[in-house]
Design brief:
Length: 413
């Protein structure tokens, strides 16, 4: 009777494994493909029953145990994400599943095929991290690095260690591990490693190295995504590229602000580089972001050059309106009266052409209106004792555009 029960259980295990696309002698990947929640829960329930009825020495138990571990880990990940999206303050979803997955992985480690040990250990390390046991996580990743058999697992361990040290703000150690990922031919996360490595340089104050690092990410196809597909064929991750390019603008702004003799030549060179390496959808917006950063960081001369460069590339009327307003204000601050007047008049012309007065309920247009008004009123205060013809002309142009307004009794004084 016992022999028949054991035989039936083994047959059931084999049937489940075949249904899952697994062979009896092959350990599944630790990153097994996710299934829909209902199917996953059903699989966990059925596989648990199979697992409990299998003899310890049964040839199928290793694959069953690994699949159970994968399913519990995946359910924990998805439940935790759902809880985070709900705005949890004390987030506990997935804890029990992670502990269960850990116990399964640890049980099966001595039995998995040699080429799968690294993958399983990487999962164990991640689960230790997610359950708050960072010390054990580090020890697990270091254990992988001591085993030269799997380059892919080593890459995963180096990346995971780098992330741990990055969170600790140990940027020097994190950078070493990121560089190890980049040097590993089997690594799939080279884009992320190069990106984080540049951030390490930035946080250590090495701005030139940080900027060059991000430029390299944006110019190198192999680094164009956080994680390359298993096929190894490079595919551009647009969201990742836009994130990297925006950070590049931030880095360039910091370098310009920190420079002792910050000026237009370096800013313009940075702006052109930023434009060239940014994704098409973000080229102009990144340059205007850099211009705004330079303005915010007290670099008006450099900001003027960047706004001018952006205006040359800008085709959207509303964006050109903002650019002319920003330039007019900056040029007036720099006593560039002729240029300021020209940009002010260009802004008024665009405002009229796109019906700006009918859009003042829009927050952006309301701000543009306030800036235009501020331009003439600030100019009036600066020349209160002796208003110039240029100021009078600016008032007339403003009142022609905004005919329902009256500033200082409709004339400068």
């Amino acid at each position: 009777m016992k022999m028949n029960l054991s035989l039936n259980t083994a047959k059931l295990a084999a049937g489940v494994l075949i249904a899952l696309g697994l062979s009896l002698g092959h350990a599944p990947s630790a990153s097994a493909q996710a299934v829909d929640p209902k199917t996953r829960d059903m699989l966990i329930e059925k596989l648990t029953q199979v697992y409990l009825n299998l003899a310890p020495a049964d040839a199928s138990k290793t694959a069953i145990t690994l699949r159970l571990a994968d399913l519990h880990a995946e359910r924990a990940r998805l439940d935790a994400m759902k809880e985070l999206e709900s705005g949890c303050t004390t987030c506990t979803a997935g804890v029990q599943d992670r502990k269960k997955a850990l116990s399964y992985y640890q049980e099966v480690l001595p039995k998995v095929q040699e080429n799968s040990v690294g993958k399983v250990l990487a999962q164990v390390g991640h689960l230790y991290e997610m359950t708050g046991n960072e010390k054990e996580a580090i020890a697990t990743y270091e254990r992988i690095l001591k085993d030269p058999k799997s380059q892919a697992a080593q890459a995963e361990a180096n990346l995971s260690l780098a992330e741990v040290y990055f969170k600790r703000r140990d940027y020097a150690q994190a950078k070493k591990n990121y560089q190890a990922v980049l040097a590993n031919p089997a690594a799939l996360s080279k884009g992320l490693a190069a990106y984080r490595s540049a951030w390490c340089e930035f946080n250590e104050g090495h701005l030139d190295l940080a900027i060059n690092g991000l430029v390299t990410v944006l110019k190198t196809p192999e680094l164009s995504a956080r994680t390359a597909p298993v096929s190894g064929v490079a595919q551009i991750d647009k969201q990742f590229q836009e994130e990297v390019s925006r950070d590049l603008a931030t880095f360039m702004g910091r370098r310009q602000a920190d420079a002792k003799n910050a000026g237009q030549s370096q800013a313009l060179a940075d702006g052109k580089t930023l434009y060239d390496v940014s994704p098409d959808a973000a080229k102009v917006s990144n340059v205007t972001f850099l211009a705004s950063e330079l303005e915010r960081l007290g670099q008006p001369v450099a900001a003027i050059e960047l706004w001018k460069f952006a205006q040359e590339k800008q085709s959207k009327p509303e964006a050109r309106l903002e650019g002319h307003i920003r330039l007019a204000q900056l040029e007036m601050e720099q006593k560039q009266l002729q240029a300021a007047t020209k940009d002010f008049e260009s802004a008024l012309a665009i405002w009229s052409s796109i019906g700006g007065s009918a859009k003042t309920e829009d927050q952006n247009f309301s701000e543009y209106h306030s800036r235009l008004r501020k331009f003439v009123t600030d100019w009036n205060r600066a020349e209160k004792a002796a208003p110039s013809e240029a100021l009078l002309s600016a008032y007339q142009a403003y009142l022609k555009t905004f005919s329902n307004e009256c500033l200082h009794q409709c004339h400068p004084r």
